[in-house]
Design goal:
The protein is an alpha/beta fold. It has 19 helices and 23 strands. 35% of the residues lie in helices and 18% in strands. Helix 15 runs parallel beside helix 16.
Length: 580
């Protein structure tokens, strides 16, 4: 009997890739997709997996591996697909030699993202088939099906997941790895070199491929009808299928495993046999719009929201008009996101706040510098945009305008796309100041390595990119490295660099406190007799510190990491290390 285990959706995707005989995997960490690669690395004896510097590179690595004849994949979150879109759209024309799969994790509800985005729409625009599993077992099985489909139809395939699937657990049956013989490589410029003359011919192939998939999709095992009471019929896919089965257990359901292109004849058959048809899909009305365009009456976004995650209760209210009694919310205190105790970014932002300097922000832990009490970060757009947007401000308003601005970006994000933005500042003669907050990790997604940490995803020691040397190599005259916790020196450097009429880079360097497992962190205490109740130490908003009723400061030694920030801020010597 095959072994069954409970697996996270992302772990099941990794297991499916392993069982399918994947030999190359590339990714950039991004919630909710990160754990796919973190689980794949346990199979490193059977396959190669890497953290790439960004999603575009990851996609290109997978495409190259596919062209050479092996099964390959790339994984990323939904906004990463935007970065990877350039090679993805062209890979649709090239097709696949070895199977080629992109796993894209969408985030309905914006749990850890700057926008809601529906990757099914990108699949449709790029003419790439999209599969959507609804539980962990399907996550594994659909990966195997996707590689078979990719090779049969000469196409990349997108596996679209969502946060709820990626981070929920389910029972999964384990199978043996299938060792796939490498496909032979033969030089074929007409297929693999996408110059206009070749692309025109391949576009015709892509259109014929789509027609074939529409026809064959009607018999794919991943598209199936579950007949029940025909008074209500529901077309659905992915995690919403689970909500439909809970809310409408007696309804007939057409469960679509392939959500693009849609199996038209199967949908027409299903619709013709039910009295009333609903389309239940999170985010965009992609299925609904196509169904209605075929003249099939259906109810969808008239009663369902286009925003956020769905639930069984939401479907009951919308379809059955049940006035469900909602339980009152627990009387729990609000817990907004906050930088960890001992985070070096808090130290940097406290200095910027003191100097009344605005920060153009980026994607990472340091985005939390936008919220009180720090309130320093004014903008956050996408990876690498802090530097480009600061450049835009200068070109719009002049160099004097940005004398009280800096761009802040993390070390991983700098290597992702910030490096290109900095090149642009140099090339187009900006004079702004860029602060690289180097905590030696990709922090927000769970401490993954990157090109400057000296360690690969597979655990091998490697060359660590020297970020200060890279900046100097661009021709930047002022590159200063400073300890993020030396607030006097940091203040001096920031004042000096923003006043210059030439481009500057300040690298505020200190490792993420959660990474350092070897150092014994000695907490600090506050001497209530020396405390003047001025509140200076409270300004950075460290969660380890609270004010007592008498106005003196209490420091929770179970949270304090002894970073020394509050100790430096106290002018009266009231805060000291335990034992001093």
């Amino acid at each position: 009997m095959a072994e069954k285990v409970i697996m996270l959706g992302n772990a099941a995707i990794a297991r499916g890739a392993y069982e399918a005989g994947v030999k190359v995997s590339a990714a950039y960490p991004g919630t909710p997709s990160t754990e796919i690669s973190e689980n794949l690395v346990q199979y490193k004896d059977a396959l190669y997996c890497e953290w790439s510097p960004n999603e575009k590179v990851a996609m290109e690595v997978a495409i190259g591996a596919s062209i050479s004849g092996v099964r390959a994949m790339a994984s990323m979150k939904h906004v990463g697909v935007n970065v990877a879109a350039d090679p993805l759209y062209t890979a649709s024309y090239i097709g696949a030699n070895g199977g080629l799969v992109l796993v894209a994790a969408d985030d309905p509800g914006l749990y850890s993202s700057q926008n809601e985005q529906d990757t099914r729409m990108i699949g449709r625009a790029a003419h790439v088939p999209v599969l959507e599993p609804s539980d962990s077992q399907e996550a594994k099985d659909f990966m195997k099906f996707a590689f078979e489909m990719s090779e049969k139809y000469d196409t990349p395939v997108i596996i679209r997941t969502t946060t709820r699937l990626s981070h929920s657990q389910g029972l999964v049956e384990l199978c043996e790895r299938k060792e796939i013989e490498d496909k032979p490589y033969a030089r074929n410029p007409q297929k693999n070199v996408m110059m206009p003359g070749n692309a025109k011919i391949r576009h015709l192939y892509v259109e014929q491929r789509a027609k074939k998939l529409i026809e064959d999709g009607c018999t794919f095992p991943i598209n199936k009808i579950e007949w029940n009471d025909k008074k209500i019929g529901v077309i659905t896919s992915g995690i919403p299928y689970q909500y439909v089965k809970e809310a409408l257990p007696n309804a007939s359901v057409l469960k679509l495993g392939m959500v693009h292109p849609l199996p038209k004849k199967l949908i027409e058959q299903f619709a013709s046999e039910v009295d009333i048809l609903y389309v239940v899909e999170e985010l965009e009305p992609m299925i609904e719009e196509q169904v209605k365009s075929w003249g099939i009456p259906a109810i969808g976004k008239e009663i369902f929201t286009i925003q956020g995650e769905y639930s069984a209760n939401m479907i009951r209210r919308a379809v059955l008009k049940q006035d469900l009694e909602l339980k009152p919310a627990a009387n729990a205190p609000a817990r907004p996101p906050i930088l960890c105790p001992g985070c070096p970014h808090r130290s940097t932002f406290s200095v910027l706040k003191k100097l009344k300097i605005h920060a153009a922000g980026d994607i990472g832990c340091y985005t939390l510098g936008a919220v009180a009490p720090l309130s320093v970060v004014d903008t956050t757009i996408c990876m690498g945009a802090s530097i480009s947007s600061l450049h835009g401000m200068e070109k719009a308003k002049g160099k004097d305008y940005i004398k009280n601005w800096v761009a802040v970006i993390g070390d991983s994000t700098f290597l992702h796309t910030g490096i290109n933005s900095l090149m642009n500042m140099v090339y187009n003669q900006s004079t702004g100041t860029v602060m690289i907050l180097d905590n030696s990790t990709t922090g927000m997604t769970g401490h993954q390595d990157h090109a400057a940490t000296g360690k690969t995803l597979q655990g091998d020691a490697t060359w660590a990119i020297d970020i200060p040397a890279v900046c100097r190599a661009m021709g930047i005259p002022n590159v200063v490295v400073v300890d993020a916790f030396d607030i006097k020196e940091l203040e001096r450097v920031i004042k000096e660099e923003v006043a210059k009429d030439e481009i500057s880079v300040i690298i505020a360097k200190s490792p993420c406190v959660l990474l350092d497992k070897k150092t014994i962190h000695i907490p600090v205490v506050c001497d209530s007799e020396k405390c003047k109740k001025c509140g200076m130490c409270m300004k950075p908003g460290c969660p380890a510190m609270t004010k007592k009723e008498d106005g003196t400061i209490f420091i929770d030694d179970t949270m304090c990491t002894g970073c020394g920030l509050c100790e430096q801020l106290c002018k009266f010597g009231a805060i000291r290390k335990v034992g001093e």
